[in-house]
Task: inverse folding
């Protein structure tokens, strides 16, 4: 019998030396860092009309700076996420924030006759800011057990969702009152503040380097300036450090169960962008009495819904994990208080982690689909503004709930490549989101908002069979990956 089956498992060596409060503090730190990817993208948007005048360029040319940002937002985490899985979270996190800060200084000082430099610096800015999301997911994979990950990803997603909520409003205020350069000076100060906070408090968490946190890091760059976390740690246990070998993140695309989950996540991100990216245009056309400021405030319900969805689904995932764990313990005749399904190489084969993570997603998808269809018809018939705003909140809540659940499962599947798989997820999400933004204008002109969002509702419903497919084939694919890792370990030992 496989010794890593859940039968007879008892609580193992502590997965992490950090106390629950310390873990929440670490998640808060990385959520602060993860804020910058969406925040940097959204705070820039209100300044586009001003930039067209300042640089004497057309709106189409200034929009290229948005396009290249999205391209590098998708590609750069593939590099930095992989580096973080190999050489450590802390130095790469600090490097990304430093790159972001430096690029913001350059953007704040860029001459208005150097449009090419604006484009280049936007690429650099995206490279620095976008990778922080993948790095944060890696940290959560390092410190959190599967039972805790849902809640931690919920809080972490709150940080990343603040960007779309406050970015456009703050960008508009800064651009109107202090000029467009003030946006970049603000980002410079904010990112440098985050840089200082992280190098002061954030410990290195990469398990191949520090194990569960009890192994001292190899050099000073991996140590916080104020090492206040993990001070009540146990003696170093080098057996808890995973073996370190380079793993190409591109190879994750060969895992077709991972691909299916990436497509599901990417589609929900695209469907979310179908609402958020067209909102200002549709509201200006169907609610002509709204001012620019009022339209900007209409973004808040969606972002509030996303933050609510991330927190609620985090709690649901933790409850689901424990409920299924108790059921499995009961079926094995074991004590649910001491029963564990963690193994050296991830989740035990007979624990249905797929069901625990995405079992609620089909039901959430039905709510999402209904809200999406209703939103389109509310816009087309210009019903009371409260109608589409309420439905926006539901769309944001359901979209983030599904994306958080699927993201958590990805990290459960490949915990030793948590930053890399998040980078792959980011690449697919950004690509699908960009394609959706391009297509939405054409579709809306052809069939109007009502039927456009009915069409998108059909796309949403098509993801439900894919979710059941993941729950069906996921356990076998997960076992295949674990067996492959075991063979590689035996080859290294021999």
Result:
């Amino acid at each position: 019998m496989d010794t890593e089956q859940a039968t007879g498992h008892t609580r193992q060596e502590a997965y992490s030396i950090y106390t629950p409060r310390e873990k929440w503090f670490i998640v808060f730190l990385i959520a602060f860092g993860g804020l910058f990817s969406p925040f940097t993208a959204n705070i820039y948007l209100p300044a586009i009309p001003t930039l067209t005048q300042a640089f004497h360029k057309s709106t189409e040319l200034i929009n290229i700076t948005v396009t290249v940002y999205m391209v590098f937002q998708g590609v750069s985490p593939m590099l930095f996420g992989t580096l973080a899985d190999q050489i450590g979270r802390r130095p790469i996190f600090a490097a990304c924030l430093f790159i972001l800060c430096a690029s913001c200084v350059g953007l704040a000082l860029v001459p208005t006759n150097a449009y090419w430099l604006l484009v280049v610096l936007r690429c650099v800015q995206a490279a620095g800011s976008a990778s922080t999301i993948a790095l944060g997911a890696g940290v959560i994979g390092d410190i959190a057990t599967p039972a805790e990950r849902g809640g931690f990803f919920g809080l972490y997603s709150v940080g990343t969702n603040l960007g779309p909520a406050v970015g456009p409003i703050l960008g508009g205020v800064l651009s109107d009152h202090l000029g467009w350069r003030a946006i970049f000076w603000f980002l410079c100060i904010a990112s440098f503040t985050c840089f200082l906070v992280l190098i002061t408090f954030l410990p290195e968490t990469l398990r191949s380097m520090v194990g569960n946190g009890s192994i001292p890091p190899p050099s000073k760059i991996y140590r916080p300036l104020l090492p206040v976390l993990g001070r009540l740690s146990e003696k170093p246990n080098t057996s808890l450090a995973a073996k370190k070998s380079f793993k190409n993140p591109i190879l994750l695309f060969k895992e077709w169960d991972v691909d299916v989950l990436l497509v599901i996540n990417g589609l929900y991100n695209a469907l979310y962008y179908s609402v958020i990216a067209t909102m200002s245009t549709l509201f200006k056309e169907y609610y002509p009495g709204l001012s620019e400021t009022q339209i900007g405030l209409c973004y808040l319900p969606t972002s509030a819904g996303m933050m609510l969805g991330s927190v609620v689904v985090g709690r649901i995932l933790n409850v689901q994990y424990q409920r299924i764990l108790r059921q499995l313990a009961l079926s094995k005749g074991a004590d649910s208080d001491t029963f564990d399904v963690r193994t050296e190489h991830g989740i035990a084969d007979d624990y249905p982690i797929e069901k625990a993570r995405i079992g609620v997603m089909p039901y959430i998808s039905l709510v999402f689909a209904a809200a999406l269809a209703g939103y389109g018809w509310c816009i087309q018939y210009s019903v009371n503004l409260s109608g589409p705003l309420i439905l926006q909140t539901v769309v944001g809540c359901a979209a983030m709930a599904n994306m958080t659940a699927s993201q958590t499962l990805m990290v459960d599947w490949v915990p030793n490549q948590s930053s890399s798989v998040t980078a792959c997820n980011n690449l697919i999400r950004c690509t699908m989101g960009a394609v959706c933004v391009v297509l939405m204008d054409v579709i809306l002109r052809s069939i109007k908002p009502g039927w456009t969002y009915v069409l998108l509702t059909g796309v949403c419903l098509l993801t439900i069979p894919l979710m059941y497919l993941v729950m069906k084939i996921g356990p076998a694919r997960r076992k295949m990956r674990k067996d492959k890792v075991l063979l590689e370990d035996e080859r290294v030992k021999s």
Summary: The radius of gyration is 23 Å. Residues 418-493 form the longest helix (76 residues). The chain has two domains: 17-230, 245-489.
